[in-house]
Amino acid sequence: MNWNDLATALFGADHAVRADGVFLSGTGQLDGRTLAVIGSTDHAAIGFDLALRQAQAVLQVVVDAPGRPILLLIDTQGQQLRRHDEMLGIHRAMAHLGQCIDLARRQGHAVLGLVYDQALSGGFITSGLMADACDALPGAEIRVMRLPAMARITRLPEAMLAELSQANPVFAPGVANYVAMGGVRRLWQGDLTEALRLALADLPAADERARDGLARGGRRLADTVIRQVLSA
Amino acid sequence: MSRLSYAECSARERLAALLDAGSFHEWLPPAQRVASPHLAALGVPSAFDDGVAIGRARLGGRPVFVAAQEGAFMGGGVGEVHGAKLVGLLRRAQAAQTAQGSSQGECPEAVLLLLESGGVRLHEANAGLIAVSEVMRALLDLRAAGLPVVVLIGGGAGCFGGMGIVASCADRVVMSDVGRHAMSGPEVIEASHGVEEFDSRDRARVWRTTGGRHRYLCGDCDLLVEDDVAAFRAAALLAIGQGPRPLTLAALQAQQAVLEARSRLAQGADDATALWRRLGVTEAEAVPDLALERLRALRPLHLADDTGA
């Protein structure tokens, strides 16, 4: 879904979300309350500078509008694969973005991620996956890598991976698999504004994803192993 | 005393040599056989510890919680079980820290993470990705509770991908001269953008781009040591003694400014050597060859420890 159509559907045509290149920022109104919107578009590759830009936007909300909810709009092809970004320390910039989102949560900002187009590994891990909860549109695509690439790198037959992925969400791309594993809290169906309202009203206070993964049957071991360690 | 190469040790050898002798008490040890069912389903050999050892121990008499990733097993890749063991360790430290002062016995003074990982384990990639973000959340919870987390990087597989990000979330990072810390490995970048972009066989350039000396000069690594287990032990003790670095708004604003300044300085710089020069490092060309003692004196003061600890 196009970011502008999404913002219009969520906040009406008078929303104040703007794109500057692939970077999204601005505000929208929901039930008389202002939401901060920060994100990316055009399947942006998240490089050192774009991670910093998003981090700065988060810090700005913390400074300027204490308590304002933050909606992270996610559309990324993953991390920027460039030597220059590695030299700069792209891992540090991404960790910094994750730390800024974490700070916002601790300072009382509700932070909600929404994968509205695609989300790949490194571009997603320090934004949507660091929010209080991450939701997705049903048409979104979430993955670390596609099956053919996975088959090549792991040197396993693609047919075997495809077969196993029928029953085990750990192996295959797809937004439904991330829901089953607890990584995505819910898919937005029907009226989008209502879905946003519902999501904001029901944010978990702690990281419940392992428990969700167990309850939904998509990631049965994580929660069990965490408990085993706690009681060992 | 002869030097014991940290890079050449296995995870368990590191634990044995780095921690106080005999003090490591493991949780979910190999005898319990908590392995990855996903690898078994693929017909891939699994490990009874899923590639990571966790537990409590002592370092210089101080109680610590510790994890060590085994780079020789699946490149230290994070799968569902592996990641959950790390999350469990961090949450257990969190619980102990929260219960501090009560009658409960075990309260660590720090958490030590001996990281060696290529990031998410691709065989169970979806679970690994979520797990890494759970590790990040649990680690930042610990920092908010004031318990310092110290990361050691010096294994042959380096510290990449999601675990590279996790490492940068810690209070302090200790690296060896031969350690590498980054996001995407040079092979991945070469495969994606060609050998002109990043020649993964150009070892000197790989080290200038991702190695311990570079990260130290930029301020991303706090303590730089020789490839020696005893040196890592001393540095870990020092780092723990320096205490926590609270992630306040002011601290993150300062970090934002440092990183933005770095990006501006690096514009048009094709190689780390140029960046070092612009950061104010004298003898930038000699950096790869200098003795570490000499190199440590070259780091610009404003990029060193910002807390005055």
In short:
Chain A is of the alpha/beta class. Chain A has helices at residues 3-11, 48-64, 83-88, 90-106, 121-124, 147-154, 158-167, 175-180, 192-201, 209-215, 220-231; strands spanning 16-20, 23-30, 33-40, 44-46, 70-74, 76-79, 111-115, 118-120, 133-136, 141-143. In chain B, helix 3 (80-98) runs parallel beside helix 4 (125-144) and helix 4 runs parallel beside helix 5.
Strand order of the largest sheet of chain A: 1-2-3-5-7-9
CATH architecture of chain A: Alpha-Beta Complex
How many separate helices of chain B?
12
- CATH class placement of one domain in chain B: Alpha Beta
Instruction: Please give the largest β-sheet of chain A.
Output: 6 strands, mixed
Mean pLDDT of chain B: 94
Task: Spell out the CATH superfamily of one domain in chain B.
Answer: 2-enoyl-CoA Hydratase, Chain A, domain 1
- Strand count of chain A: 10
Mean pLDDT of chain A, nearest integer?
95
CATH topology of chain A: 2-enoyl-CoA Hydratase, Chain A, domain 1
Total domain units of chain A: 1
Pfam families (chain B): Carboxyl_trans
InterPro entries (chain B): AcCoA_carboxyl_beta, ClpP/crotonase-like_dom_sf, COA_CT_N, Malonate_beta
EC number (chain B): 4.1.1.87
Protein name (chain B): Biotin-independent malonate decarboxylase subunit beta
